[in-house]
Fold this sequence. Notes:
Blueprint: E1 6-10, H1 19-31, H2 39-45, H3 50-61, H4 67-84, H5 93-102, E2 106-110, H6 115-122, E3 132-134, H7 147-156, E4 163-167, H8 170-178, E5 182-186, E6 200-202, H9 205-213
Parallel strand pairs: 1-2, 1-4, 2-3, 4-5, 5-6
Helix pairs in contact: 1-4, 3-4
Amino acid sequence: MKNINTIIFDMDGVVVDGMPYHIQSWKEALSTIDMSVSDLEIYLMEGMTGRETMDVFVSKSNRSLSDETAEKVIKLKRKIFNEIFTVTLMKGIKDFLFELKDRRYNLALVTGTRLEVVKKVLQVGLDGIFKVIVTGESVNNGKPDPEPYEKAVEELGARKEDCIVIENAPAGITSAKSAGLTCFAVQTSLPEEYLKDADRIFRDIDDVSKFLLK
């Protein structure tokens, strides 16, 4: 890939295997208001902020919830998540990140997750890897809005044509493409049919690594 010097990573399902914990904590929190959602529905919301995810769940359920109740559920979801979340890096990601760093690529992380969770992830030997980190709190509009990726490119001082985004969820792919970026998708959470808007689809991180670093 000529001229590519910047790789922007989504976090859950790309860098860290966080989705099982998000699924469990959403399900438990929503059960307190007798609302149930499927694993697939949660996977499809991946990358969005807690508030945006909650809004989608409520609108799909055809129920009206007060802001106060919605906020309570989101807080409970975060509390459960923080209690159960264990950092497990995705297979192949650490080697890939260090190899990119060695080859002087600029690296950024763009996630709908909050900074306190990102800090836990970085503690497993990824400190100082990412030049720029954009979290759920640092934007007004989360994925699928282009703002998170636009902010990363701006903070990196990069040119859009020199960047590749690595994503694994529809909201993130839409965000990256709307920001005018090339997006690679990995099938770590969802099958190919949900990732069709990406420029290229790979089975996993090792396949992306082989393609980019060959």
